[in-house]
Amino acid sequence: MFVLVLNAGSSSQKSCLYSLEESIPDTPPKPLWEAHLDWTVAQSGGVLTVKSNDIRQRIEVEKKESALQILLDTLTTGKTKVLESFNDINAVGHRVVHGGAKYSQATVIDDEVKKAIASLIPLAPSHNPANLEGIETIEKLLPEVPQVAVFDTAFHTTIPQAAKVYPLPYEYYQKGIQRYGFHGISHQYCSQRTAQILQQPLESLKIVTCHLGNGCSLAAIDKGICIDTTMGFSPLEGLMMGTRCGSIDPQIPIYLMQKYGLNVENVNHLLNQESGLLGVSGVSGDMRAICKAMSDNNEQAQLAFNIYLYRLKKAIGAMVASLNGLDVLVFTAGVGENSAIVREKTCGGLSYLGLQLDLDKNNANPVDKNIAAEDSMVKILVIHTQEDWAIAQMAFNWTI
Ligand SMILES: Nc1ncnc2c1ncn2[C@@H]1O[C@H](COP(=O)(O)OP(=O)(O)O)[C@@H](O)[C@H]1O
Ligand SMILES: CC(=O)OP(=O)(O)O
Ligand SMILES: [Mg+2]
């Protein structure tokens, strides 16, 4: 059976096709086909990279409107073809970033679910519209095939009230203003994979997962249950990110409007797209470019890096306080998986926790490995997050 996964973000569309037998394998299988559409790498338009049949194809895409169809066509045509027809697909899973308070589990998509995703667009304006577009495109193409929404918020619905409710007048909590948390598919996958790699029961572990990609968040996971996370009502709270500021004094946006005449749209753009690593460095929101600029003695890039790490270290401390202890620290996503220097600096500032990195292991491009020193009291893992595989499993479960 074939399961298609669409993982739409603000500036990219990742997609995979898995071929599955009767039961789900213990470790993630290699997808049959993978496509990645990126709108940030080209001067104009987007770049689609497709991998299948041991080949890699690059296609320039001009218009966003036709992009998803071009991406899907590579499944059934050309050198990357792996299916005779779209009708061979048995189920489709979608990453949906914001599911609100209602969805604590993956669910089959119907009109009510689509309405809920649309109604949450103001809470995740860079993500939910793209998720909805993916769902509607597939609906036209494969009206009979079950589509499953897997929510980034679902894993966090166990967070206790003291961590969930903001200190605003209570009526706003009743109206839905609360901590939702995001990247839940990745945090959950990484916690389960941790138990697998260490061959220890998940129920015996206190874990902090650091999802450091374009968006960044931490989760505090006790016995497999999420008890706290750094993102909140929207994916803007918490850590400093590529272009998002993370937590700042809430008076600042008010002051920006009063003093500089910015309107709501301007402030929204400033905090979500012009801040973070990009805003401080003036160079880029991409950690690779920041590190390159630092090696060229760019002081603003160095400052951006220092703020990123300082805030990351403090936030890990807060998650450890929530957990009242720590057994495993996990690094994942683009920065967490690939940047040895970010891992080294983070761990260096946490030695009081009994956490000690093995520098050689850290520098050896670890994937799904423990990189802590032998005598470290806390394990340190690098895990390749496989959100797509987690989504595929949940979509598969709806077909049996
Ligand atoms: N070798 C690397 N060193 C440092 N950062 C990296 C490296 N490779 C990728 N990244 C970072 O990972 C980020 C993307 O992470 P990813 O998890 O793919 O993001 P998302 O899914 O949020 O789009 C990039 O912006 C880049 O900063
Ligand atoms: C929720 C979120 O921030 O997602 P991403 O990191 O993919 O932008
Ligand atoms: Mg991501």
The low-pLDDT segments are: none
Determine the structural class based on helices, strands and strand pairing: alpha/beta
The CATH class of the largest domain:
Alpha Beta
Identify the strand order in the major beta sheet: 5-4-3-2-1-6-8-7
Q: Estimate the helix proportion, in percent.
A: 25-40%
Corresponding CATH architecture of the largest domain: 2-Layer Sandwich
Order of helices and strands: EEEEEHEEHHEHHHEEEHHHHHEHHHEEH
Strand content: 15-25%
Give a structural overview:
By secondary structure, the chain is of the alpha/beta class. The radius of gyration is 21 Å and the shape is globular. The chain is built from 15 helices and 14 strands. Bound molecules: adenosine-5'-diphosphate, acetylphosphate and magnesium ion. One of its GO terms (biological process) is acetyl-CoA biosynthetic process.
Task: Give a brief description.
With 400 residues, the chain is an alpha/beta fold.
Provide the fold topology:
Layout: E1 2-8, E2 12-19, E3 33-38, E4 46-52, E5 55-61, H1 64-73, E6 89-96, E7 107-108, H2 111-119, H3 128-141, E8 147-151, H4 161-164, H5 170-174, H6 184-198, E9 206-212, E10 216-222, E11 225-229, H7 251-260, H8 264-273, H9 276-281, H10 287-295, H11 299-323, E12 328-332, H12 333-338, H13 340-348, H14 359-362, E13 369-370, E14 379-382, H15 387-397
Parallel strand pairs: 1-6, 6-8, 9-12, 12-14
Antiparallel strand pairs: 1-2, 2-3, 3-4, 4-5, 7-8, 9-10, 10-11, 13-14
The chain binds adenosine-5'-diphosphate, acetylphosphate and magnesium ion.
